[in-house]
Design goal:
This protein has 228 residues and is mainly beta. It is built from four helices and 16 strands. Strand 1 and strand 2 form a beta hairpin. It comes from Paenimyroides aestuarii.
Amino acid sequence: MKQTILIILIFIVLISCQNKSQEGKIFDSINYSDTTIVEHQTPDGIIEFEPYDYDTILSGGYNFKYKVYTDKTGEKLQSLTLRKGDDEIKVLNETSFPMLFKNLGYIGADFDSSFVFVQSFGSGNPHEIQLIDKKTGKELRKGTWVDVDEKEQVMLYIENEHEQNEKLLIYDIKNRNEILSTGFEKSKCVEHVIGGLRNCVEIDTVTTDEIVLKIDTDEEKIIKKYNR
């Protein structure tokens, strides 16, 4: 009987030591279906899972790796890394943890050879974007989100928003052609709506030969057509 009690006590001590040694440990991210989750252990020994709320899968075999970790100074961080399969290409962004995932970034549009990486900072604020080459992780374009036609691979964005050299640009990814759009600046919508161009102008239609933008409100309707 005494021997049985002794064995039980030894087993309890071993388990306790094992749990103590795991305290604060951060594990590498693992893929679960189409969502990346990170497993980590809290100071009180409870295992938690941190799911990344946005889609992490891109066409062509590319994806995001979401990671939570502690740096050399002891600060807990989170990051998104562009990968092809399991091969890492580039860290897209890194920020403190916890922090809203939309601040860290998410996929805004997925094209054949590139994608739109978006960061959002609250309702009404501009959505900052980068058009990123999948193969290299290189930034191809940068600005403020306006609209996109994912199927036709056309992106509408603002460069240098609220600056003297602000531009409304159409980037045709498929044909590698950029078009400057002018004439919407003096519209009633742009003059009176918070956010101006980015909250007034949208892509109407895209065909093989033409890209059509519009402002369509109760007060006005403005259509502009561009050769593709």
